[in-house]
Automatic annotation (TrEMBL):
Keyword ATP-binding: no
Identification of the protein by name: histidine kinase
Histidine kinase domain segment(s): 795-1010
Classification via CDD domains: HisKA
Source species of the chain: Chryseobacterium soldanellicola
UniProt-listed InterPro entries: HATPase_C_sf (IPR036890), HATPase_dom (IPR003594), His_kinase_dom (IPR005467), HisK_dim/P_dom (IPR003661), HisK_dim/P_sf (IPR036097), Ig-like_fold (IPR013783), Reg_prop (IPR011110), WD40/YVTN_repeat-like_dom_sf (IPR015943)
Pfam families: HATPase_c, Reg_prop
PANTHER family per record: HYBRID SIGNAL TRANSDUCTION HISTIDINE KINASE C, TWO-COMPONENT HISTIDINE KINASE
Top-tier EC class: transferase
Amino acid sequence: MAILIHRFVQKYASVFFLCLFSLIYSQQYSIQLFNTDNGLPQNSVKDIIKDKYGFIWLTTENGIVRYDGTKFLVYKNFALTTQRFTYFYGHPEKDSIYTTGDYGKTILLHGKFPKIIRNLKNFTNFTVKDNINYFLYSSNFNYSTSPGINFYMNFKKGRYYIKENDLTYFDNRSKVKENLKITPIYKNVPRIFAINQMLFYIDFKSKKVVKIEAGKIKKSYNLPLLTDTRSKILWSQINNQVFIVNQNTIYICEYVMDELKITRLFHLNKDKNENFISAYYDKYYKKIYLGSSIGGLQIISLSDFTAVTRPPSKSESNFYALLPFSDSSVITPFGEIYDRTGFAGSKNFNNPSPFFMDYDHQGNMMMVKDYDLMIYQKLTSYRKNISIKDNFLRDFFFDKSKYYGLFCTPKNNSTPEFNGILTLYKDQSFKFPEKKFFFDSEPTKLIRLDQNNILVGTVKALYKVSLQTNKIYNITGKNEVSIRNIIKSKDGNFWVMTLGKGFYLLKNDHLIKMPYDINNNISSSHTILEDVNGFFWIPTNNGLYRVPENQLLQYAQNKKIKVNYYRFSKDSGFNTNEFNGGSNICGGILKNGEFVLPSLNGLIFFDPLKVNTYYPENMYVERAIIDNNESRFNKVLHLKQDFGRADIFVDVPYYSNSDNLVIEAKLTGNAGSKWEAVGKDGKFSISNLGYGDHSFIVRMLIADNGKYIYKRINIVIPPYFYQTLWFKIFTLSLLIILLYLVVRWRIHFLEKKNHELEKIVSSRTKSLSDTVEKLEITKIKLHKEIEQQKKLIGTITHDITTPVKFIAMTAKELLNKNDFNEKQQEKIVNSIYKSSDQLYNFTITLKEYADIYSHYQSDKKELYSLHSLIEEKKILFNTIAETNNTEIINNVDPTLSVWISKNILSAIIHNLIDNSVKFTNNGIITIESITEGEKITLLIKDTGIGMDENKIEYYTRLQDNIENEKLLLQKYGMGLHLVLQLLQMIGGKIIFEKNTLQGTSFKLILVNKKND
């Protein structure tokens, strides 16, 4: 008995699991079809695979195709005789995917690009064993169905060789050979597929699926779908996936916990055979890729949403207002009940308006028909109703004791326009109004703001009604805003939906506008449904959007915060992108957690916690088209300076709604560079870029929280030779050298001119300086002479007064007295004579001094012999000297020539020799000269009576301070005073010395200079 039960369970277990998984996993789907009209190079898709970078690859009979979810990149210009390719094999996880053309050439897919390689020993699609040819079998549609072909299959531990009636296993390590006699294995295509390194054989005769490991049969399974001759098996060893196509229904077969499990994926609503020959299932994105032999590629997207339409017997599935009816269903104003499986029954309401329905405090359903309020009674299971005439109710809410109703009233009978009335009732009925507030435009929405205020929306403005002051405040001000809905979120914030102007956050009686999405679809948003994770679901006229509430609140605080809206469109499983608004309730939340939204074509059911959102994981910036020539690069893009246009491509493997692919890029280093959106084609164009190093930065959104990943590409544009640094340095150096030479030449020219000018100026300056110097010297000398002359005149005046006075007094005495005797008379006359003679001699000396001075002013320097000058003076005084028996000896150097003023020096020497001759008797006067450079010492010695000490002291002191000393002319005469004065004029000096024995020595110290 136990054995029978075990067999029964084993026999029907697979059928049970098949039915179970069919119920659970059968989903709605959307289909995208691609062929030669929209991207494919050819309509026969031989094989499909996904590489380690996330790109989908297709083989066709006209090249290899890479698909990133948005665009196809075709490679068909290989250096081959044909561009026909078949199946993939290799290891995607190792970035080593191979495919082979019709003539044995191998293409390697590596690093996201294909290239031709030599056939490798371990990765060949053909081998020979025991003189028998075997072709690699990695997919059941490797070759066209033709008999007599042998195959081999590679596994980690060994290899299978497959003939029409023979299966041989060869172990790689032990070299053991296992031969299984399974007949027949195949006629045209082997009845074999592989999962998880295990081989499965379909035995149509026994209706079993046999599992084979290491060349030995391990187990068998009763799976009618696999053994049904109508089933078409699509399998790929490299993808490790097996699909079953049976009566337009597609299943996936997986090996789980030692069992083969078959799961129904979807049913194609078509009767014809699609000629599928390849398949790939992307579990992450819930997409099945089906390749046809003639029809191109179909991408079936399994949906997290369920679109429910009205039964075929009903009119169009255009839904507006709805109410939750049970834990998993909703009811419409027509009384129709729907759950995610479809139509579930009807209450057959009598055609009310589709734009309003609500529950009252007793659970009765309220609807509007024409201008009357219809209330369907819950106690009668909504079969009976009562009506309240002339109550065009637009919105409604209640509290523990009152009803609050928003009504429409026609403005007049000639126009379709309405006014609005907010009515507060005394109880929970529509019979006893307590307060009314009037609005001059059609009302749309009513909600309680707080205990004392109510928000009322109309087609023109948003108002706040104060229940305390009974006043109405216009929140929107002068700007007309058509209010569609007002939603209070769980945190107490109020969100205002509008028609055509987006939605707003109401904060402190101020509306804060929320940003639009990239397509501005959010401008016409209908309502907000909030899930438990804090996401807002916003239906619009063009898609359903999801956004985190915290991002919107952050944006309200800081407008620089970026809000990321995630868009769900028709590809997600809707029948249309247009959702409906305009009703008092535009969406419902069921007790089972599902959300329900009305659309232009169906009700959309979905569980917000089970809806997947997809963001890209990585992006690749490694190819560009430069002036129509494709180029590949790695982190650095080299451009020529004369390039016209460069299109840099951002490749992103992303297989969801491309509206959610947020890619932005910018070029740094340019003034005003900012983030720019990269289009859906992933292309960023640049032109007119100067030479140098530039940075191209790309960022991509990868999460709801606003997280981005970044890529930086360096763009290097080499300069022309005349723009290089070395050329600039060379040019600058050359310019500096030229400038230096020009400056040097100019300086030399100016120096020459300056030198010439300097010569002229120097000459003139010297002349002027000499003149000035002479004038200065003359001025000094004149000043000194004037001072000396003043002093001399003063002394002369003083000294001449006495003799003149004496003469005058004597003459008076002589005149007054007539009785002079002879002796007295002689005495008087003698006194007059001496005084007169003294005065005469004094006058003569003054005249001689004046003559010398006048001659000195105009005297020109001339060179003469000092010895000759002394000789002239010697001859002059020889007669007087001989009378006194005195000899004058001239020992001055006969070769000595001097520039000293001849007149002055002659007067000095004359006075000194004269003094010596006067006071020397019977003696010798000797004149000698001593020369030391420009200094000449002239020594005049006599052996006369000599000069007393008082005179020597007086003349020495006078010579040192001639300007201040008093002149004693009367006492010492004019001679030596004149000598001192003349010496001062020629810069000379005299030293008076008494000789040891007798006589006096005069030592003249003179300076012999031409320019003196």
